[in-house]
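[agent] plan:
  1. take the single chain provided in the ticket
  2. run structure prediction with default settings
  3. attach structure tokens to the ticket
  4. add a short note for the reviewer (M.T.)
[agent] executing step 1
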Amino acid sequence: MSDKQQPNIDDFVVNIELTVRDINVLLNVLNMPQQTPVLVFADLINAIQKQAQPQAEKAAAGVAAALKAAQEKADESQTTT
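[agent] step 2 finished; step 3 output follows
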């Protein structure tokens, strides 16, 4: 499998659900980061990580399985030739 064909975990999409209140907080944080308490950043980071981590782990497992299957196929074709 060439580098161009290998899936990259950074290219996978994760879905994050935020309340309207959370969106407003996020927009205000982005607008005025110096005036934002550190705990607000921590809460937003935690909310994103809690939702994104399981999705990223699932995608990584899929990538690993695809690479393993491709390697096994390549190994199999080498042994039969």
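[agent] step 4 note for reviewer: The chain has one domain: 13-79.
[agent] ticket updated
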